[in-house]
Amino acid sequence: MSTKIEQSIANNNGKVVVIGGGTGQSVLLNGLRAYPLDLTAIITVADDGGSSGTLRDYLRMVPPGDIRNVMATLSNASNDFLHLFQYRFKSDAGFLANHTIGNLMIAALAQENQDISAAIKILSQMMDVQGHVYPVVNDPLTLCATFTDGTTISGEAEITHAHKKIERIWVEDVDGSEPKSEPEVINAILGADVIVLGPGSLYTSILPNISIPNVASALRITPARIIYISNIMTQKGETDDFSDSDHLRVLNKHIGANVIDTVIMNSGLVPEDYIDWQRWDEISHQVKSDPEEVRKQGAVPIMGNLIELRDEGVFHDAQKIAELLYTIIKDPGTGKDSL
């Protein structure tokens, strides 16, 4: 790394904002934390399933699960502490069934301080979290979808289980008012050098964030380079037969302009005989690569073999993605079709 680049990063020019949710966001951040970057995670709060959904309903708080995973990923706490933080009670544990210690800690601090942001700040200090962690809003949201057949469903779990083609996604506050992100979220977007969308479920991890009006507005005016990491596999009932440019089109449509500058696309081939289709029944087929269609939407396609094969499934390789992103951050002119 050159002296110029080191000085640039030392002067806080390596500000990277990762917007998303689910396991993909944590995987990416785990790769990026190996580099000298100022990381910020903006996390969806529309999850309504599992332990997060239960705490959300009982305590009227944002679902803590994705927040917990990101904090654990960025923490410098001991492995023993992190193991306890991530411990999930077994399904036969009565009222504690399937809850994680970390979710309960976040819930307790949020209730004690009457503010989820304060809870995250306190816990971040306790866990020596290297970066900034923000829920996209401080109140739980309801995810809503209109399908191509004209029907409408509310609730992330219900939308996912419907397995129907989605026309549009939006979020609603529990009291019916328009959701609004806090100033620190908007300031992070406006002050970033690079903003990363994904990887993760298009309709349930990424769009719930960018569908918030002031977040979409900030994305339209930020000087940051906006990068989308396209999914490797389509999601059954949601993105069947989607190409990379189809994902991009939906994102730009919900943001309200063609603002995405770069699309990172996988060029590796997924071996059909490797995937356990029963175990990973939410995936369908490999996403089609169509770089020319991506260019037509004003984005630069950057391709590479980004596949990690494990557990009879297909995932993004965190190290490869992080290395590629860091190359882009070091050299903003990066735009080759194959790296």
From TrEMBL:
Principal cellular location given in the protein's record: cytoplasm
Keyword Cytoplasm: yes
Keyword terms: Cytoplasm
GO biological process: regulation of cell shape
Superkingdom field: Bacteria
A Pfam family hit: CofD
One GO MF term attached to the UniProt entry: LPPG:FO 2-phospho-L-lactate transferase activity
Alphabetized CDD domains for the sequence: YvcK_like
InterPro entries: CofD, CofD-like_dom_sf, Gluconeogen_factor
GO cellular component: a single term: cytoplasm
Localization, UniProt: Cytoplasm
Functional description taken from the UniProt entry: Required for morphogenesis under gluconeogenic growth conditions.
Family of this protein: Belongs to the gluconeogenesis factor family.
Entry-linked NCBIfam families: CofD_related (TIGR01826)
Name used for this protein in its record: Putative gluconeogenesis factor
